[in-house]
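sorry for the late reply, my laptop died twice this morning and i had to redo everyting from scratch. anyway the thing you sent over, i finally got around to it. pasting the sequence first so we're on the same page, its 422 residues, then the predicted structure underneath. double check i copied it right bc i was rushing
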Amino acid sequence: MTLTETAACGCPEGTALAATRRSLLGAGAVAGASVVFGSTVLTTIGGGAAAAAPATGAPVVVVVSLRGAADGLSLAVPYGDPAYYAARPGIAVPKSALLATDGFFGLHPALAPLVPLWNAGKLAAVQATGLPVANRSHFSAMEELEDAAPGSAARVGWLNRMIGADQITGRLQAVAVGSSLPTSLLGPETVMSFRTLEAAVVAGADKWDTNGTRTRSLNSLWGAGGREMGTGMRTALGAVVDLDAAKKQEDRASTYPNSELGRALASTARTLRADLGVTAVTIDTQSWDMHTGLGSATSGWMVRNATELASAIAAFFTDLGPVADRVTLVTISEFGRRVQENANQGLDHGWGNVMFLAGAGVKGGKYYGTWPGLQNTLDADLKVTTDYRSVLAEVVASRTTASTATVFPGFARERVGVMVGQ
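ok and here's the structure:
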């Protein structure tokens, strides 16, 4: 079986990003084994001892990746910088249409569903963030961003290191909602991937397996063993049982947009409400690679994507109810776009970007970061003034017990101030 991730891309390097199961897991599973449950569920089993019972009430970090390189200058508009309007005569968002303005920045009008979170001090934006050196290749930039360990030969993602270093234990500690595991979760710690919560089943444990024969057989074959495969299988089978409990919770997904992102966040909310011990979740949203036809402030590609993103995140925090008090959501994209629009009223690959943070521990209602200024010249970038790892490190330090030195090895973070206590 081949696990394939496809991203919309109008760039010369191609339109598909794919990895075989062998290359994906062979490089990532440092000391463990891997098994597949059904056609869409992947569990990577670490080599440690059997997991303890799920922790309750633990903080959760949710990372939403805007695959394809979202244009941060459209999402959080620097209307106070005159070069913005000079460089984008066809696609700039008028100042009069912007939301949550502060005298220099404002949110795209399609992000209106997020304004209540902003006004409540639960949503913030960090400007001019990104990789320390520009990397305009989608695949290479995503790998670098999610490994977050330059120079390391080990293909282990920052979230996998985080859950390994966190002092919270649970048999289903990390979940990737999507078609495959992102690099951020690759590594020796146990993680699970499913496209939707309903897809998280053991292969063969379907409506015809009325007495649970399939699960019992797997448990008999592997579960009693004292070695790695035995402990790993007990962890995996326990995770499926936990997810079954989450499926049976009340379905409140009707407020979400009818989209892949909406369904992914609905599944995530149900999983977190079930309190299974999950402390890290990744969700991918595709099609942000807008080389052509980005659109206007009222219609077009950016409006559609921004509306979906804002509506899904707003519904997610409403759906969580009291669980929202322990969930922190971060958006990230592999790089930003150029300052100038191109001849097709789109934007080519750039460098700096914006990161949004929402939920628990966020000092919201504010734009953070050092603004470098824009230049209205061909191939001009938004320069990066805040390494993205400094933003993520504040989330890790504020919301987990993991050491930021372990999660981001060799990195000396700078203060951003977007998280409580940082």
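The chain has one domain: 4-407.
thats about all i looked at so far, will dig more tmrw
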